[in-house]
Amino acid sequence: MNRPGRYASPDASKAPAAAATSKAGKSLNMQAYELVKHRILTLQFPPGACLNEANLSQLLNIGRTPIHQALNRLTLEGMIQVIPRKGIIVKPVSMDEVMENIEIRLVNEMCCARLAALRRDERDIAEMKRILADARKELPTQNIERQMILDHDFHLAISTAAKNRMLTDILSNLHDQSLRFWFISLREHEHHAAVQDEHQAVLDAIIAQDPDAASEMTRNHIESFRRNVVRLL
User: Which structural domain, as residue segments, surrounds residue 207?
Assistant: First the structure.
């Protein structure tokens, strides 16, 4: 299972320098994994697209072995799949998969928001406020990728405030699986503003230490996401 952590966009423009900086920074395996994963999440590699190790190696200027390891990991995470006589493809977006993910998120995130309202400290509140302030500033830019990252960070901050490592691990995995869906949902600029209002309602309930309201506002937020994704898929 993935360890929780803030999702950061790898700088694809610096991919040619990756091999030279590998010893000073991330391993080539991790660089390859993050770069391919990022392109899948942001639909640069759209659902159903064929992936080829040689082409990816040339595109990212990373050797075949790290690319192979990255594809193996992404296969285990359910982002790509191997189709007999066709090769490796980006896993198509399934409505059933989206609905199942949302059902599990509802149960776990409502519980998480409830715990966050009871256990949050001032550092948690400050972090959530910072993320929301950054997200508000991004609204005029219509930068879908940046909004997706900030959305992910806000949900991570709530799980951190809940002070339950097992729950944080579960939600980190669920969020990784659903980032493509978030990217699809955030393609409409009007939805960006609605998401920020929904996040603010969750935060207000957490600040007020009202677990019932935090849980209910979280439900409203995820149900809004469900309606928007269903409409766009």
Answer: 95-232
User: Given a cut of 60, is residue 23 above it in pLDDT?
Assistant: no
* Tokens, residue 230: 């269903």
Sheet containing 87-90: order of strands? 50-51, 87-90, 80-83
Q: Domain total for the chain?
A: 2
- C-alpha distances out from residue 109 to 139, 203, 216, Å: 25, 13, 10
CA distance 14 to 11: 6
pTM (two decimals): 0.79
Phi, psi of 87 (to 5 degrees): 105, -155
Is there a contact between 180 and 110 (Cβ–Cβ < 8 Å)? no
Spatial distance between the Cα atoms of 25 and 53, rounded to a whole number of angstroms = 23
**Mean pLDDT of the 161-175 span:** 92
Instruction: Give the Cβ contact number of residue 121 at 10 Å.
Output: 9
136 and 205 in a single domain? The answer is: yes
CB 132 within 8 A of CB 200: yes
Distance, CA of 106 to CA of 163 (rounded, Å) = 18
Contact present, 36 and 73 (Cβ < 8 Å): no
The contacts of residue 96 (CB under 8 Å, 6+ apart) are none
Residue 156 and residue 106 share a domain: yes
Domain boundary among 60, 90, 120: 90
Query: Of the segments 177-181, 194-198, 228-232, which one has the largest average pLDDT value?
Result: 194-198
CA distances from 183 to 60, 122, 159 (A): 23, 30, 21
